[in-house]
Predict the structure of 1-acyl-sn-glycerol-3-phosphate acyltransferase.
Amino acid sequence: MLALRSHLFNILFYANLIIWMVVLAPIYFILPRKIAYNVPKSWARFNHWLMKTVVGTHFEIEGLENIPASGYILAPKHQSFWDTYALLPWLDDPVYILKRELMWIPLFGWYAAKQKMIPVNRGGRGKEMVKVMQRTAIEMENGRQLIIYPEGTRRPPGADPEYKYGIARLYRDLKVPVVPVAMHAGLFWPRRSMMRYPGHYKIRILPPIQPGLTPDAFFERLTQELEKASDALLLEAARDNPDLPLPPTARNRVDTLLGKQ
């Protein structure tokens, strides 16, 4: 039954993505950019409803009061494709730095261009990165929220952290608050797997780290605070979902935190 519900959700999820992109394209591209953003926001809400209805997975968000009113960097843990759209309904005007190749994908790339996402040639150096930083600074001055995954790519729940120093450079150069976000959606929507697991989990938005620290001091503080919050949420998720099959990385981390190793 679990496998059936997982496959049904996956079919509906990707069908829903295609339908929204195709059917709503005329409306999306005619509307002003910020009004058009309601399309992906509504798509994300519908996906949350699908996950809850089909799979039986639901979540709650703690710390929404910690989100600043003006431009800031959102720094979530990244374990699942779910993370890429999960918070869209609660963000006013987000912007991503993404691989330029993604902008070449029909429909998706056009949608991203409409929202002024920032493409980057990851093989580029020097002037390329200067252009990206200049474009990012302009978007932040307009009060947008830059979403950056500090570890760069999806990591298994409970795995040793591998934070990239690039976020410290962004913190230094953009001079805006950084808001860490802890979550363990990867326990319920695992990377590289078609399975989806029922249960309940939390997203915890931490107080922002204000500008003014040295890059090294910021990087250490971000790592410590986000990992501490992630460990706490992992223990809560394991406790509240006793039937959830934890991946080895998560099980080992839980055992370590509970002093079983």
In short: The chain has one domain: 2-257. Residues 215-240 form the longest helix (26 residues). Strands lie at 57-62, 72-76, 94-99, 118-120, 145-147, 178-183, 199-205. The chain has a mean pLDDT of 92.
